[in-house]
Task: structure prediction
Amino acid sequence: MLPTFDEIYARVDKGSRRSLQSFRRDHSLKRLQVGNTAWQYVTVGQGEQAILFLHGMAGAYDIWWQQITDLWTDYRVLSVTYPISDGLEDLERGILALLDHEGVSQISLVGSSLGGYLAQYLVARYPGRVETAILANTFPPNDLIASKNRVTARLLPFLPEGLVRRILRQNVEKSIYPASGYSELVRAYLLEQYSRPGCKARFLFGYRCVTTPFDAPDLEAAQVPALVLEADNDPLVGKSLREMLKGTYPTARVHAFHQAGHFPYLNEPDAYTKIIEGFLDVGGTSG
Result:
């Protein structure tokens, strides 16, 4: 039997628990069939400038709820949950179909980890549709991840679902949770994700995406202002990858969170949202 919300979030402060529950209750998921793939997403707000939130490997549309709640009065905000598919090309196809369905011609992208990698891919493929790009706790196209995890990647498809869940939960407790400053919200949200069926398939899909090579976009030539958000103790994106990202996009602005881990939008939401707003006000257009 799966643990309940109250069981998973028992150590999270009451305000955050109620806020997340209210968001899930008040914002019904929309559904869009793109070929054989079913997409789920939310869209709120009526602002002229549109923002698309792209989550990482351990996330869903609502991982951004604190930012969405603060931004929807001034922006039109969309947030997706990726369907399990063949990889980046399928994600690209689905996102373009979703934007067309919603009548969004240009978008500001906010992507973390896998979402930041996907954001770069979208800029490379469709620079004319991207107003600005925020690349958070992520990395550029590289061969380091595949090289470092070659043995694990070969073994993972043969491991039972329960063992994969246990390994992922242990990584939360031993690495991600401490790096977040022992944020109970970070811990609970990830443990909830890793308690759901299909955890192994989602992880394999995410790994396939972040190890798919492509040519990094020329942000200056594309005239796409970019902001790099990083944390100086990110346990999932090491210093070499963080430096590689900044070297790939030398014109991008950079903001580093101190001792905030891999999910600062969860454990430092107010500061995170303020940085997004400041960048969009200066770096983006409003029409």
